UniProtKB/TrEMBL annotation:
GO terms for molecular function: flavin adenine dinucleotide binding; geranylgeranyl reductase activity; oxidoreductase activity, acting on the CH-CH group of donors, NAD or NADP as acceptor. Reduction reaction proceeds via syn addition of hydrogen for double bonds. One of its GO terms (cellular component) is membrane. One of its GO terms (biological process) is glycerophospholipid biosynthetic process. It comes from Thermococcus barossii. It comes from the Archaea. This is Digeranylgeranylglycerophospholipid reductase. Binds 1 FAD per subunit. Keywords: FAD, Flavoprotein, Lipid biosynthesis, Lipid metabolism, Oxidoreductase, Phospholipid biosynthesis, Phospholipid metabolism. Residues 174-255 form the Digeranylgeranylglycerophospholipid reductase catalytic domain. Its EC number is 1.3.-.-. Its cofactor is FAD. Transmembrane segments: none annotated.
Amino acid sequence: MKYDVVVVGAGIAGPIVARNVAKAGFSVLLIDKKPAIGTPKQCAEGISIKVFEKYDIPYDRRFINREIYGAKLYSPSGYELELRYKEASGVILERKVFDKMLAYYAARAGADVLARTEALDVIRKDGKIAGIKAKHEDEPVEIYADVIVAADGVESTIARKAGINTYAPPHEFDSSYEYEMLIEGYDPDLIHLWFGNEIAPRGYVWVFPKDEDRANVGIGIASDNPKTAKYYLDKWLRENNIPAKKLLEINVGVVPVGGFVKELVKDNVLVVGDAARQVNPMHGGGMAEAMEAGTIASKWIVKALEEENSELLKNYTTEWWETDGERLQKVLKVRRVTEKLTDEDLDLFIQILSGTDAEKIAGGDYGEVIKALLKHPKVILSPRRIKLLKELL
């Protein structure tokens, strides 16, 4: 088989690249090792409503469980911070349907799509990467392409085989554990997040409503914690008298929260999405980031193919780092500071911050918020808090 572009991985970034490049008139093959694209999910399934228009994705009720109107944050001692909008600000997806539909949009744009096709290695000819070796329904196959896109997740076989350095230390990953379950008592119009060093070390517990009485209930903690994510999630459920007896689905995953890949391109191979650690380090969400990276990557793939100049692919690295990469580096600074916060600090900040402030901090646009915090009396009286906040400026 021979294509202009082969995209390995049909999560979020891969189908965006495949669709955009196919729309430009080039031959594209999108492959995924799973028999059914989109399963199993490893995601809380929440995303900003803005992505649909920004990345030209239909607002299709087939993959939207519920519209969300904001968030509520809970401190270790139970203080609450609510951010509520009059109009929907986000949605809870059904990722099993959403991912498959993204692949469908790529196919409809002209890309070929093959499920149950696992990339095993790269093909080298005359010292250059000329394609990939794969296994389609247990049969070996060679796929030749001018451009290879590694969108194959955290472990990314293709990025590693191509010689792209994707190493990050264990501390730059979170371990997550999630139940899709029946649960009552929480406003289903909001997502709910609990913080605390005894609740979720370096992370948080979440309730993302999918129905009035059904939600994704999960946790993310530092992967190098001696205790498991499941231990902390089950402990939280017990302490809040929530019976874990109506479990519809259980999902386990590893989420990158740092360690962004420096060189996103090597020769004719590009790495995108989780494979490139393009994830928000503060909350571990990576869908919007994958869409953005896929959009930037596909733009430079099209230009490189049009001008028959593979050197243009390197502009993907440059543009990403000058835009979303710079923003995520700021968010990473926030994550590293929050790791040093005590439960007393978390109680204080949830009391004095507004919902908009919290949103800006999580998004990396926090300069003015931090300057205001440094003037707060309870911050001024603590040299340690002043030092921590100044690390963000």
